[in-house]
Design goal:
The complex is a heterodimer.
Chain A (H helix, E strand, L loop, with lengths): L3 E10 L2 E11 L4 E5 L6 H9 L5 E9 L2 E2 L5 H7 L1 E4 L6 E5 H15 L7 H14 L10 E2 L5 H15 L3 E5 L7 H14 L5 E6 L3 H5 L4 E6 L2 E6 L1 H10 L9
Parallel strand pairs in A: 3-10, 3-11, 6-9, 9-10
Antiparallel strand pairs in A: 1-2, 1-4, 4-5, 7-8, 11-12
Chain B lengths: L10 H11 L7 H15 L14 H4 L12 H8 L10 E6 L2 E2 L13 E5 H7 L3 H5 L9 H8 L4 E6 L9 E6 L7 E10 L4 E9 L7 E10 L4 E9 L5 E10 L4 E8 L4 E10 L5 E10 L4 E10 L5 E10 L4 E10 L7 E10 L5 E10 L5 E9 L3 H8 L5 H17 L5 H20 L1
Helix pairs in contact in B: 1-2, 2-7, 8-9, 9-10
Classes of the chains: A alpha/beta, B alpha/beta.
Chain lengths: ~250, ~450
Amino acid sequence: MALLEVKNLQAKVEDKEILRGLDLIVKAGEVHAIMGPNGSGKSTLSYVLAGKNDYEVTGGTATLEGEDLLALEPDERAAKGLFLAFQYPIEIPGVASMTFLRTAVNAVRKKRGDEELSTPDFLRFVREKAKELNIDQDMLKRPVNVGFSGGEKKRNEILQMALLEPKMCILDETDSGLDIDALKIVAEGVNRLRAKNRGFLVITHYQRLLDHIVPDVVHVMAKGKIVRTGGPELARELEAKGYAAYDNAA
Amino acid sequence: MNAEVKMMRTAAETQYSDALSALPGAEPIRALREKALRLFAEKGLPHRRVEEWKYTDLRVLLREMAPLAGKPDARAIAEAKKNDLLANIAAREITFVNGAFVAELSNLKGLEKGLTISMLADALAKDPKLPQMLAGLNPSKYDAVFALNTAALNEGVVIDVAAGAHITKPIHIRHIVTGTSPLSVFGRVLVKAGKKSQATIVQSHSGPDAVAYQTNTVLQLSVAEEAELDVVRVQAEGDRAIHLSMTIGAAGRDSRVRSFALTTGAAVSRHTVPFAFAGKGVRAAISGATLLRNKQHADMTLEVDHALPGGESRELFKTVLDDESRGVFQGLIVVRPDAQKTDGRMMSAALLLGEAAEMDNKPELEIFADDVQCAHGATTGALDDDLLFYLRARGIPKKEAESLLIQSFFGEAIEQIENAKIRDAVMNLASGWLAERALQ
């Protein structure tokens, strides 16, 4: 069975149509990349799947393991196993990173029917995951994302991903604003989290992220739908030729 | 014939005059009371055309005076005994029930060296300067709340911290109202912090829900040179109460004052803080968190007066308004000609949760010196949708996500409390308010 199945998805924001009949199937264990020119609707797709309320779904379906995602609240989607790594992770002054992480982990565990973690167990869990992902725990002493560098913010997203143990991960332009060293650390983190029972959708404008997170399938998105699908070689072709050919597609 | 224009007296004004003039009493309190009562008879309750009371029209909000409270009976004391507001802050408690001191709910034994706690009548017998202090720090200025409080002067407590004494155990003055019928309660607390002394004063107000009682309390702080004083106030009155109060401060050279107020109670409340920087180099931080719901109305009015050079004032107020509640913040910073090198910063931020909630923010600066740094800011806004979405995308349900954001909002003000036990207790009260909200 498909892990994520999107059929003929249409969505608009403030009367502007952004997604115009998008189809996509991601199976467990697969890594898919979506590439496309600016304004093709890549980020909108990630927000619509995660449930941001600025977007109105006007047609089509999206399911996670057969369950209707669009009928669920954002937090319920997260509990079902959907995770969106934000392009621009948000700073939350006044909320301690650890409080935020513990609240999130325990909310998700509770909804999944698992026991909530005690404070010492939670701290052990965070320490373990941070070590695996080469993340310096010092940044967790600060409020959520406050004063974090671009690289720290993205690493924090990957840490959250590891802690929430999702089934389907969407990475929205995770490479934006990262230098090559930070990009490598983030990519290594994602690669560690690749698993048989987990799917990835990597949204990116550039091919360079895909040198480090090698996808199984590459899609080209233009004007709100998938216009071409191929293997990893498609990413290199786009890097060489650019998106000019797709600006008028669809 | 002289044409005399006089405002019609309201029912409440007449009731106050009648009830308070009938109070028994001896000199010198009697003279103070009579003077205050004459002033009240002349000026009356403030209304919206009085600038300082623009948003809190007492002529409208306080239609009738509730009957004066009598001595608490055994039942009232038994009820007060169950009151556990701030019970776990390891403080020395001084308890007033319906305005009367109750020895069995207070602990005046084993006072630390340098600490004197006296009832008002005893203190008056010993200190000839006390009447002057009771009359107010700025007697030329009329304030109806202060006038009524003085006209009703009866019971009260004087806390005297001797020069150089460091009193580590907080002193908690509890104003508890009990019973099921409306009553009027008055109270006066004087704190005299001697030179180079240190002390922590906690003042709390609580009473039953669903009873239209009225409280009027005045806390006067006289802080001597180089003293350090912390004051924490918790106003958790019952949901139909009218609460009028003042904290009047005068700080001497190089003293340090930290004052924090948590406001969650009463249908209508007004707290006025006239604070005088009466010496050079005073540092004062005045902060507060106000959490309102339903149709609550809470007014916080500051008048920070820098008279001498080198003063530093920091004011930080956070107001959370749910449902149809209304918040008022008026903050005036005056910098007089001699108060050069004054550094004043005032911030009032409001978070509107209810669509019909309202916040009136009125920061004001009056600066007469030329070498000063003063800034004020006021913001009013709703919860940020992007922040909420980020939290919810991590699996945190809506109410919980809102609670996290609201807590971070008021937490910044509560963090200003120095004493960790008191800070935790205040944070618990504020979290309790949030938990109740999340249940709705």
